[in-house]
Write a structure and sequence with these properties.
Blueprint: E1 22-31, E2 34-44, E3 49-54, H1 60-68, E4 75-80, E5 83-84, H2 90-95, E6 98-101, H3 113-124, H4 128-141, H5 143-146, H6 158-170, E7 176-180, H7 188-204, H8 208-223, H9 228-244, H10 248-266, H11 271-284, E8 288-292, H12 296-302, E9 305-310, E10 313-319, H13 325-331
Parallel strand pairs: 3-8, 3-9, 6-7, 7-8
Antiparallel strand pairs: 1-2, 1-4, 4-5, 9-10
Helix pairs in contact: 3-6, 7-8, 7-10, 8-9, 9-10
């Protein structure tokens, strides 16, 4: 059943069947002089995955920052594990058992995968056998990390960086882990841009202005986490084209390489391993997971319940099987 915030004045109606680990009651948050959150109620229980959904700019990330203390509440109450959370500083909230993976991942680019993970162990103070056991659990969830321990965080793909960030957060031994857009990867607009460029190369042939377009596109792809190893062969050919003019042979090679990058970028590289990891964590029955996510199919696959936000308020919620196409059209589609 779908409920609307207009149908209840109590947060009890949106609580999970079991007791809540995290409770938000009527929270309001301002940024500058603007009221962003308008009486948000939300509950997350241990052993469940809750999806917080909504269009861009409706207050999802502000809700997460209000929970973690990065933004102060104007009014309302947040309880975690039975205690008031909103009166604590951000570091005290983290130590109480909250792991936070923000949008953009925030891995340390010049540290190795091993060093990034060890930061999580140091924060929690784990030693010897407990540390090895925790690290083995992360490698079980994200096997690719074990293969890349010596690699710098900054050269990983976007999906690999996301797995690293989640693994590092898990090593702090949280009771609740908060994920902001975990499946975010290459923007669809960039994939479309590659496709448009390939069409131009096919229809127009070598043109100097296309060389500039491709060079600009490579910068965007690098900023979005495409591994440099996938871009360097294109960049080297673009340099020659800039110096010598548009040669048909090199432009054909660039087109082939761009098509490969487009194909790889369109794959669900992030979605499958993170979805599988969340299912395993949910199966453990002890960790609460709150995930901000716009990919509806991902939420339907991994979440137990959902909340949909609009204009700073929760406007619909329910069990995940109530996230129908009608609800998606009304509250989530742009």
């Amino acid at each position: 059943m779908i409920l609307s915030t207009r149908e209840t004045t109590s947060g009890a109606a949106i609580a999970p069947a079991s007791g809540s680990l995290l409770q938000l009651r009527a929270i309001e948050t301002y940024i500058g002089g603007s009221r962003i959150l308008r009486g948000v109620d939300l509950d997350v229980a241990a052993g469940e995955v809750v999806a917080l959904m909504g269009r861009n700019g409706v207050g999802k990330t502000t809700t997460l920052k209000s929970i973690t203390g990065l933004l102060p509440l104007r009014s309302g109450e947040i309880r975690f594990d039975g205690k008031r959370l909103d009166r604590l500083a951000p570091d005290a909230r983290a130590r109480s058992g909250i792991g936070y993976v923000p949008q953009g991942r925030d891995v340390f680019p010049h540290l190795s995968v091993q060093e990034n993970l060890e930061i999580g162990l140091v924060v929690h103070g784990r030693r010897a056998a407990a540390a090895r056991s925790a690290m083995d659990r992360v490698f079980e969830l994200f096997p690719v990390l074990k293969q890349m321990l010596g690699r710098k965080g900054g050269v990983l793909s976007g999906g690999q960086q996301q797995q690293l960030a989640i693994g590092r957060a898990l090593l702090t031994d949280p009771k609740l882990i908060i994920l902001d857009e975990p499946t975010e990867g290459i923007q669809p607009s960039i994939i479309d841009q590659i496709g448009d460029t390939l069409k131009k190369l096919k229809s127009e042939g070598p043109r100097r202005y296309l060389v500039g377009e491709i060079d600009h596109m490579l910068l965007h792809l690098e900023l979005q986490g495409v591994p440099p190893a996938n871009l360097d062969p294109i960049r080297s050919r673009v340099t020659v084209l800039q110096n010598e003019g548009p040669r048909s042979d090199l432009m054909a090679e660039v087109a082939e390489l761009l098509a490969h990058v487009q194909q790889e970028a369109a794959k669900p590289e992030i979605i499958e391993p993170i979805g599988n990891a969340l299912k395993k964590l949910k199966g453990d029955g002890s960790l609460a997971i709150l995930v901000v996510e716009q990919f509806v199919d991902f939420c339907r696959e991994v979440a137990d319940r959902f909340y949909a936000m609009d204009r700073g308020a929760v406007v619909a919620w329910g069990r995940i099987d109530a996230l129908t196409d009608e609800v998606v059209k009304e509250h989530l589609q742009v």
